[in-house]
Amino acid sequence: MFFRRKKEPPKPPVPESPPPPPPGPAGTRSPSADSTAFLTGNDGLDRRTIEILLRGIAQVSESRDLEPLLIDIVDTSIEVTGAERGLLILHDDQRGLSVRVARARGKKPVDGQVRFSTSIVRRVLGDLEPVRAQVSSDSEALELGTSVYDLKLRAVMCVPLVANAGPEGQAERGVLYVDSKAATREYSQKDLSLFAALSQYIRIALQNARLHIDSVEKARLQQSLEIAGQIQRDLMAEQPRDVAGYDIHGWYKPAEGTTGDFYDFVKMRGGRHGVFVGDVSGHGIGPALIMAEAKSALRQGLKLLDDPAAIVRSVCEDLGPRMEDNLFLTLFVAVLAPDGSIKTLNAGHTPPLIWRAATKTVESIPGHAPALGFVDDFPYEDGPVHRLEPGDLLVMLTDGLVEARSIADPNVLFGEERMQECLARHAKGDDARSVVECVIAEILEFAGGKREDDMTLLVVRRTGT
Question: Which of 7, 118, 179, 254 has its CA at a distance of 20 to 30 angstroms from the CA of residue 427?
Fold first, then answer.
């Protein structure tokens, strides 16, 4: 908006890791397993294990339906571990622990209330380390938690799931959990390693699901922006053809699907006409909504009042409190009288220009008040009254034009001085439209056709007839 506000020493070699310690007592953390720790040396058993893992990889790669995939992975976890139950438990900072999938042996859903060892689950979530617990007595069960004792569990395994963070920086957190009441079922380190490998498929599946949802939402958002952009184009003012004493032409191009720039013409009482140009900071739906409200309020105000300051004060009092802190609106309003006099108000907007036909010089109308959104109750007052003689031009624009970047050197902007020189070169055009077309062509050539911001240009020529 125009309203200006040594090179590191080599690291010592890492010593080889010591061999993993033997399994600890019931409820202790088990060491993380490497990628092949589940292999036993038994060709038949290992072949079946690898087939299970490969099947899991294929399912995760090909499936687009998350829920059946999660159920199948939990069922497989029960099958390969010999467990009686398998659970996929997710954690949310607001809702806490929630069971996403609960399955029983035989690929059956778990009926009724699903209880599990919350103490083990919370330990795994906190340490991000897998746990296998063997329970041989009631005292050991009580050490692990009342749920383990009440459910008469004799074996539990639990491994962490942490999916990669999404666009908002939030990661999916949870555990894959199996348990059994059978006293003869003992989980080995190889069982835990295979179980941990299976858990990675759920992590990948959850991540893929988020990416799919993100892509769908992105497509929906893009479609919404395109629809909103089309609505904006349909509502943009038509070029006026019946303004006595003036020839007016406007042009705009959004940087994205929607625009925060706007302009309009309003036929007023007493043969006067109101014109205004505005620019809402930012891009997207939010600025587009502010733009639509401001435009409507300005049109209504100009139909009732011949006082730009009073109109802008009213718009500011209405919109200001409802605008987010990072949004503001720059605005230039002019009331054209049949005799060529112009009442103006510049609220932080890119300075409009006046080209004088008699002297071939360019004047600037600087801002004399802040943009809307900075001070909700600012006492706006009219700026100086200007007068256009026959042949003179009033040129209103937004900062996307003066801030266009050079295709040859991105550090160079088109700038206000170059804009004045450009206007002086093309101001002799036959009509307002030809002036607009020539100025825009020069700016787009300077920028190589690129638009980093919305661009709007409105030219008013005093005809004197």
Answer: 254
